[in-house]
Design goal:
This protein is α+β, with helices and mostly antiparallel strands and about 350 residues long. It has helices spanning about 1-15, 25-35, 80-85, 105-110, 120-130, 135-155, 165-180, 240-255, 265-280, and strands at about 20-25, 45-50, 55-60, 70-75, 95, 120, 190, 210-215, 220, 225, 230-235, 290, 300-305, 315-320, 320-325, 330, 335-340, 345, 355. The chain folds into 2 domains: about 1-130, Creatine Amidinohydrolase, Chain A, domain 1; about 130-355, Creatine Amidinohydrolase (Alpha-Beta Complex), CATH 3.90.230.10.
């Protein structure tokens, strides 16, 4: 599986006229090697050339087993890591650099290789990663199944004496019991007017009758991420709250129905946005409609008016329109959508009908 991914990367390198590149981002190294290594401040580099085995430059601190498909260069804390890396590079050749590499390493390498050109090669790998293979799709489905179950259990646990922060703690325990590897991001649990902030930070606020409750949650399983949002109401939902909810639900459904190969990401964004504008809430939908997801919860590529890239089979992204009324409430509904050969698959199955929680 990993050799196939490296060969695909080499094909794209050849098309780009690139003979060597450095992969330094932990998720990308995992994608290409199956090894998850959090290097912190230490140098970690996967060097890929047009031929030969990829070479992993890694500190001996990390207990990674050598494998036949990779060459290993082991570094000490006292090693001149950049000089050692430079010795392994093709001289006077353009070098592809990962978008996520500390400037301290990059600038030292640039000063060492004075005659080389440097380019951002992440676009090549990001494009390959955007189309998930069958193994990745299996992992994404599994993570979303856990997330569906967690959403059901979290909503069942809603209690008027429980703060947003306490609900976060409940969710952490739910994920642990369901076999998840933890949060894929800090969950957003927003009661009532707190929901008007799309990136609200959980607080000690407790529930009040009629509150909307935004539950934006995601787990990580086998290094792949889930992400979904449901909005429910506590005790009752007034006329305006119902109107807002139905507008967001219609926007979510209409955008998802547009998904198929050949469509543009901007088309999906427009479908959701038009519904909310038609309902008179256009100014209150303040963010893009979605983001790509996989090993990272936010990967390159988004569902926005600025992205005219074409949808291709294997792509997975969120569709999450929302309406945010300052001082009143917020509503967001989010699903993860897989582009298939002839349409789409919704990776989330938890119901989206208006739900009023009563205790």
């Amino acid at each position: 599986m990993f050799i196939h991914r490296i060969e695909k990367l080499r094909e794209r390198m050849k098309e780009s006229g690139l003979r060597q590149l450095l992969v330094t981002d932990t998720p990308s190294i995992y994608y290409l090697t199956g090894k998850w290594i959090e290097a912190g401040e230490r140098l970690l580099v996967l060097l890929i050339k047009e031929t030969g085995k990829p070479c992993l430059y890694i500190n001996e601190l990390f207990p990674v087993k050598e494998t036949e498909d990779l060459d290993f260069v082991w570094l000490k804390d006292t090693s001149d890591a950049i000089s050692i890396l430079a010795e392994g590079l093709l001289k006077n050749e353009t070098l592809g650099i990962d978008k996520n590499w500390p400037s301290g390493f990059l600038i030292r390498l640039m000063n060492t290789l004075k005659s080389s050109d440097f380019v951002n090669s992440s676009l090549i790998l990001d494009e390959i990663r955007s189309m998930k293979d069958q193994e990745e799709i299996r992992f994404m489905r599994a993570a979303s199944r856990i997330n569906d179950d967690a959403m059901m259990m979290l909503i069942d646990a809603i209690d008027e004496e429980m703060s947003e922060k306490e609900m976060e703690d409940v969710l952490k325990e739910i994920y642990m019991n369901l076999g998840a590897d933890g949060f894929s991001f800090t969950p957003i649990i927003a009661y009532g007017k707190n929901g008007a902030d799309p990136h609200h930070e959980n607080s000690q606020r407790i529930l009040h009758e009629g509150d909307s409750i935004i539950l934006d949650i995601g787990c990580r399983k086998d290094h792949y991420c889930a992400d979904m949002t449901r909005t429910v109401f506590f005790g009752e939902a007034g006329h305006k709250a119902r109107e807002v909810y139905e507008a967001v639900l219609e926007a979510n459904n209409r955008a998802i129905e547009m998904v198929k190969p050949g469509m543009k990401f901007s088309d999906i964004d427009r479908a959701a946005r038009e519904v909310i504008e038609e309902k008179g809430y256009g100014p209150y939908f303040t963010h893009r409609t979605g983001h790509s997801i996989g090993i990272e919860v936010h990967e390159t590529g988004d569902v926005s008016s600025a992205n005219d890239d074409i949808l291709k089979p294997g792509m997975i992204f969120s569709v999450e329109p929302g309406i945010y009324l300052e001082g009143e409430l917020g509503v967001r509904i989010e699903d993860l959508i897989l582009v298939t050969e002839d349409g789409y698959e919704n990776l989330n199955r938890y119901p989206k009908d208006l739900n009023i929680v009563r205790r």
